[in-house]
Design goal:
mainly alpha; 2 domains; transmembrane; membrane; transmembrane helix
Length: 438
């Protein structure tokens, strides 16, 4: 059995397929949540539920990329276990501190949601259902520790198998509501399945790393180690996360503040949804080649690193290219269907969206690879110009566009921002190649 798992783990093709299947299930679950809740909840409760979903998205983002730091440090330790390797200065207690932080984040978020419901800011007739659903969704933060920890110790297949099972059961429990299953019972099933899946992942991570149970609660030791060695990395990771979240979401707010054109807001929402779908698929493919990439990096094997990096970039561009072709073929119909025919997208706007997706592919490869190598300070330097461009897109479009119609100018400027950001990341990837040979 171990030999089979090892062979599956070493196959980038199999890893890619498994991860894409998991991404597909994740997207289906997200769609099913909206599809089921809008049909079961009263209109007022559903509007409140959308606020809950928005807050949950922020809670997941508040992980601040800390699991990426643990991945990079644990990966180096795992690859350097041999006599001539360099295991670095990783200590298992670090994972206990991160585990405590993520639990605290979920607990704090739950208290905020409960307080918002009690105070009437989230008005609902089913408060317990909302709190339990928030916990189910927020547990995905904790699942990142199991996922990236097992990925660092060549346990991708183990986690993906657990996570596929967890998501499949959750999806079935959700769809069963449409056939008479109680919604509260469905959420409870999803909560239990999530706890069991994450618990199994943590146990497997402990066994593969040789951790002792007491090391999970040795917070003083782990916290002191973190403060001494990589507090700066944590600061850069937090700033990077805040910059990226703001950059990708800023047009929602600048459009709402500066324009009264509802079509422009719907257009950006469509761009955001397409970008997120493409970036999620690209992440799955990059994660599949990360074992070989990180191994080549820590061995200073520039040739192998460059080859795998080129493969990851080619696959990412292929995904973006397929999405662009699909968009050109059915984009208008998809846009009309999504927004109920309330607005239309022009051919030139579809063209700029295709440019954005192609640039996004290179940005994603750079961000995911550099994040896995704990290069947060360089990533922050590439993110800040993107943040500035994103914030300035709408004000510039107001000056460049025709009276009453700023959508075309917005898309052209936003596309140019993505192209410029992609060029910055290409320079960063070339620098990575040179450092891999040093």
């Amino acid at each position: 059995m171990d030999g089979l798992l090892h062979r599956l783990e070493r196959s980038a093709h199999i890893l890619t397929l498994v991860k894409l299947a998991n991404v597909g299930l994740s997207m289906l679950w997200g769609f099913a949540v909206t599809y089921v809740f809008v049909r079961v909840l009263p209109p007022g409760d559903f509007r409140a539920f959308l606020l809950l979903v928005a807050f949950n998205n922020f809670t997941i983002s508040a992980e601040f990329g800390l699991t990426n730091i643990i991945y990079a440090r644990l990966r180096r330790f795992w690859l350097g276990r041999s006599a001539d390797g360099d295991p670095g200065d990783f200590r298992p207690e670090e994972m206990g501190v991160l585990f405590l932080f993520l639990l605290g984040l979920i607990g704090l978020g739950t208290l905020v949601v409960a307080g918002a419901i009690a105070g009437g800011w989230i008005a609902t007739s089913v408060p317990l259902l909302f709190v339990l659903f928030f916990i189910v969704s927020a547990l995905n933060v904790l699942s990142l520790l199991a996922k990236r920890g097992l990925a660092a110790v060549d346990g991708n297949i183990l986690w993906e198998g657990i996570d596929l099972s967890r998501r499949a059961v959750s999806l079935v429990a959700l769809i069963a509501v449409l056939f008479g299953f109680d919604l509260m019972a469905s959420v409870l099933v999803q909560l239990v399945v999530s706890l069991l899946g994450i618990g199994a992942g943590i146990v497997l991570l402990q066994r593969r790393t040789g951790m002792r149970t007491r090391q999970w609660v040795a917070w003083r030791v782990g916290g002191g180690h973190i403060r001494r060695l990589y507090l700066r990395d944590i600061g850069a990771s937090v700033l990077l996360t805040l910059s990226e979240i703001t950059a990708y979401n800023a047009p929602y707010f600048t459009i709402a503040a500066l324009s009264h054109d509802p079509r422009l807001l719907l257009l950006f929402d469509f761009v955001f949804k397409m970008s997120r779908a493409v970036s999620t698929a690209i992440r799955a493919t990059v994660e599949a080649v990360l074992p070989g990439l990180t191994s080549a990096w820590f061995r200073h094997d520039a040739r192998a690193f460059g080859k795998r990096l080129l493969t990851a970039s080619g696959v990412a561009l292929g995904i973006a290219g397929c999405a662009a072709l699909l968009l050109l073929a059915i984009g208008q119909r998809l846009f009309d269907e999504l927004f109920g025919g309330r607005a239309h997208i022009t051919l030139s706007e579809q063209g700029w969206l295709c440019v954005i997706l192609m640039a996004l592919a290179l940005i994603c490869v750079s961000v995911y690879v550099q994040g896995a190598l704990s290069r947060f300070a360089p990533l922050l330097r590439q993110s800040l110009p993107f943040l500035a461009g994103s914030l300035l897109t709408m004000p510039l479009a107001l000056g460049a566009g025709q009276r009453g119609d700023h959508a075309s100018a917005f898309m052209a400027i936003y596309g140019a921002v993505f192209v410029a950001t992609a060029l910055l990341h290409i320079v960063a990837l070339r620098r990575l190649l040179r450092e891999a040979a040093a």
